[in-house]
Write a structure and sequence with these properties.
By secondary structure, this protein is an alpha+beta fold. The chain is built from 17 helices and 15 strands.
Length: 533
């Protein structure tokens, strides 16, 4: 019985070996000599080993989740028009200083002198300019000296030249405390930060500035030269903090209004008005206004060129500039997605008055693979301040700044005035002369640099960027200005146009694509593919 079973198994094994479809096994069975059987067995085992090595190699490659980057240059007959944000370089109107508090005017109004001591009747004496200082005459700018004021007024009337890096993601994408951290609290008094106090003779201040400019660098580098902040920098930081102490409505009331700045507006040849813009407050530039915000609808353009985009004529209002705060005149312009938060201090373009400026925009879309290939996300965090305040969609900058601000609110019990405050925080801005707050901001800044804040902010999986190119020409032309003056029109300000560029509405698209899918796991290894169309 045992022999019969053995013969049956042996016969079945011989039949399997001789009829197998595996390469080499039938030859092992059919071989008559031991040497022949050995050679065919070694060839078969070698082939199986090579197969196992290839399967393991391909499996490891697949689970590395490598990808290729594909660049496609596509053409479309119609594209979404971007949003355009414009901000005046001057954050506060000089005429609005009269409505501010006495402390605010003392720090920032060069023509204001606080009331004197009470007179014999017990009434406070009228505030008069200090000795040697006179208030600016009506219709003339208050400046450091009379010559500068006269030159500025003359320049503006002739239509001539009339536009930070404190954010957490500026430049190298690092969060900073925007001048609040690492500052000496004893030197941050608003009354001492101003370069010219109300009681100081303006000509004396000018002489001191000239003397400083003539000093050699060897003399200027003595003492605490590298450890003290510049007075103009401290004055600007003080202004930012003081404005953060009042409500947003009050801050916007003190800034430039769009109905005054916007002289003319056209979209593809059709008129537009301030009602087509939305507004928000920026810590450095004051009131900013956005055209084509997603809450106003969605605009498309089907032809390139300035005739089929946005055209604006803007008035700089240089006579309303703050003398000690705003050093240059003009506008800050940002081209961005309609649902994204603009950051003029990082991404803005400087627009100068007295010129016709053309801003051409090219669209670049980036699609990133998520899941195992990267940590990209399109979802806004629940504590995103820009989403709460402005209803903006996710972006890396907004996430980083919200994370930093939330940590400041939680640990310092105040908020950084350079970023929006959470609506439900119930805290006040961090004061420049609060040593405890400054130390807290410095510590958080160091933690951010060391990547220990655990912000969990990643790049967006789907991102649209606008690449801008700027060109300008002198505006207005002599003959055009003469013709307009004959009709009673005074030309002064900025002529600006924003439009899509290139002949066929071309846009670039970067895609991250899987290098190998499960269907190609057992196939041949392919090289990386970079395709340019």
């Amino acid at each position: 019985m045992g022999e019969s079973s053995g013969d049956t198994f042996s016969g079945a094994f011989d039949y399997l070996m001789s009829t197998s479809s595996a390469h080499g096994l039938p030859n092992v069975q059919r071989s008559k000599t031991v040497l022949s059987k050995t050679i065919w067995s070694m060839l078969f085992l070698g082939s199986v080993t090579a197969l196992l090595i290839q399967v393991i190699t391909l499996s490891n490659t697949f689970f590395e989740y490598n990808y290729t980057v594909s660049l496609d240059v596509k053409f479309d007959r119609s594209l979404h028009f971007p949003a355009v944000t414009i901000c005046n370089y001057n954050p506060v109107l000089r005429s609005k200083l009269a409505d501010a508090s006495e402390e605010f005017r003392t720090a920032f109004d060069v023509n204001f002198a606080p009331p004197g001591p009470p007179n014999e009747a017990g009434e406070p004496a009228d505030g008069q300019p200090g000795e040697g200082t006179q208030a600016a005459p009506s219709g003339q700018q208050g400046g450091i000296d009379g010559s500068l004021t006269a030159e500025t007024s003359e320049t503006q009337s002739s239509g001539g030249t009339d536009s930070p890096n404190s954010g957490p993601n500026s430049g190298s994408q690092q969060v900073g405390t925007a001048g609040l951290a690492n500052a000496n609290p004893t030197t941050l008094n608003p009354t001492t930060a101003s370069t010219t106090s109300p009681g100081t003779n303006a000509s004396t201040a000018t002489t001191e500035n000239v003397t400083e400019a003539l000093e050699s660098w060897d003399d200027r580098e003595q003492g605490d030269f590298f450890r003290e902040r510049d007075p103009s920098y401290l004055l600007e930081q003080t202004l930012i903090t003081e404005l953060a102490n009042i409500t947003e409505q009050e801050r916007m009331t003190m800034g430039h209004s769009l109905p005054t700045m916007l002289l003319d507006c056209k979209w593809k040849g059709y008129p537009c008005s301030p009602s087509n813009f939305t507004s928000f407050y920026h810590y450095k530039y004051g009131n900013c206004y956005t055209f084509n915000h997603f809450t106003k609808g969605d605009l498309f353009t089907n032809r390139p060129g300035p005739l089929y985009g946005l055209s604006m004529r803007l008035f700089v209002q240089q006579n309303e500039y703050m003398p000690d705060i705003t050093e240059s005149a003009g506008f800050r312009l940002v081209v961005h997605g309609p649902d994204k938060m603009p950051f003029p201090e990082d991404d803005g373009i400087a627009i100068s008055p007295g010129f016709q400026t053309a801003v051409a925009a090219r669209i670049m879309t980036i699609e990133r693979l998520g899941s195992h290939y990267s940590n990209c996300t399109n979802h806004t965090n629940s504590n995103d301040i820009f989403k709460e305040v402005y209803n903006a969609t996710y972006s890396l900058k907004a996430c980083e700044r919200s994370c930093y601000q939330n940590h400041v609110i939680k640990e310092c019990k105040c908020f950084d005035p350079h970023y929006p405050n959470s609506p439900d925080s119930g805290v006040f801005p961090c004061q420049l002369n609060d040593e405890k707050a400054i130390d807290c901001l410095t510590r958080l800044d160091d933690m951010y640099k060391n990547d220990s804040l655990q912000c969990n902010c990643y790049q967006a999986c789907s991102e649209t960027n606008y690449l801008t190119s700027v060109s300008s020409s002198v505006w207005p032309a002599d003959q055009y200005e003469a013709k307009r003056r004959q009709s009673g029109c005074l030309l002064s300000g900025v002529q600006l146009s924003i439009h899509q560029t290139v002949a066929c509405l071309r846009f670039c698209q970067f895609d991250k694509r899987r290098r190998r899918s499960a269907w190609t796991l057992a196939g041949s290894v392919r090289s990386d593919n970079v395709r340019v169309c």
